[in-house]
Design a protein that fits this description.
homodimer, mainly alpha, Tetracycline Repressor, domain 2, elongated, DNA-binding
DNA sequence: TGAAATGTAAAACGATCGTTTTACATTGCT
DNA sequence: AGCAATGTAAAACGATCGTTTTACATTTCA
């Protein structure tokens, strides 16, 4: 693992736990174990560092939901929450924190959500054997809901989403 | 509407649209049309002003969901999103922005979410004629999901949640 | 009428923000 | 051996942060 990966990982952890705005550059340099000169040479700016964090997270997340059934999608979320905890969606949080006024960040968020939406459509199609845009929209809502409700209701929120989605899929099956 | 209400309303709008951390006290004084001396005499501190904003929003929100059916709950959310737009849950966003490290804010968020959870339980009980904790959890997840998915998918997310919940309620009915 | 209360505008507080610069040490390559 | 690249620590940059203070004007009301 090279230093750039370390930087992104460490920055991701701080941004995720304390917020983008609340995390100062000196906390980042200290946690990453490098001078601010080096950090700026690597990352460019704080916003670009956040974009790198989001890009890495998008890759890691999308890899985790490489599944072909809706139930497996929520099993993956259950695992994610178990391993990483539940602090809500970093993409939506960062976009909200910055009021959508930092174009590179807003773009990274939009790209991720578009990819996620497309992935859910694919999973629903694979599971049913045909597409079902309404069910896909419901799955997106349940996934987003489980992600955010888990912040204050814990793993029970993910279980509830998983059982709900089982009912919806069963009803949609031909 | 007295000046304190104006202050809370104006602050709520800025915090909601640009984020708590990103909103400076001078933007608040200018938007509220008062000197910083008066603002501090009224609000105490930035954090206490945010707590006032959250408390007022809790009241307004809880009044809007004084309904006795699950469908009406999502109709209320549809109306909320139509009138106020969709920027996610201000309570969760503020808690995340501050890393949960400002006790008064963390407490206001916890209080609101507890009240919301209890209200959903009551609505489910009123709708079914008996309680159903699992359905209630599913309703919470769908509501939270519609709130956050609507940020990037618009009103379609709320419609999807509403149609999903109709299926779940129908199935739970005796 | 005159003190008490409440407001204002604006300067100042020390701290911290994101970022750049200065000055120097270490490394890798030819 | 010696140059170029890459790192460091630390000071400095101007700007802005949340908050308090100073000095003064207006209102309230006994």
């Amino acid at each position: 693992m090279d230093d750039t990966t370390t930087l992104t990982t460490v920055a991701g952890r701080l941004f995720d736990r304390h917020g983008y705005m609340a995390t100062g550059m000196d906390q980042l340099t200290e946690a990453a174990g490098m001078s601010s000169r080096t950090l700026y040479k690597r990352a460019g700016s704080k916003a670009e560092l956040m974009v790198a964090v989001l890009t890495e997270r998008d890759r890691r997340f999308m890899r985790r939901i490489e599944v072909s059934s809706v139930d497996a999608l929520f099993a993956a979320l259950e695992e994610w929450v178990r391993v990483e905890g539940a602090r809500g969606c970093l993409f939506l949080r960062t976009r909200a924190e910055t009021g959508g006024e930092i174009p590179k960040i807003a773009e990274a968020v939009a790209t991720h959500k578009a990819a996620f939406g497309a992935r859910v459509q694919e999973i629903v199609t694979a599971d049913l054997g045909h597409d079902d845009p309404i069910l896909a929209e419901q799955v997106i809502v349940l996934f987003e809901g489980a992600t955010h409700a888990a912040v204050y209701r814990g793993a029970a929120a993910v279980s509830a989403a998983r059982s709900a989605v089982a009912i919806l899929v069963e009803r949609a099956r031909p």
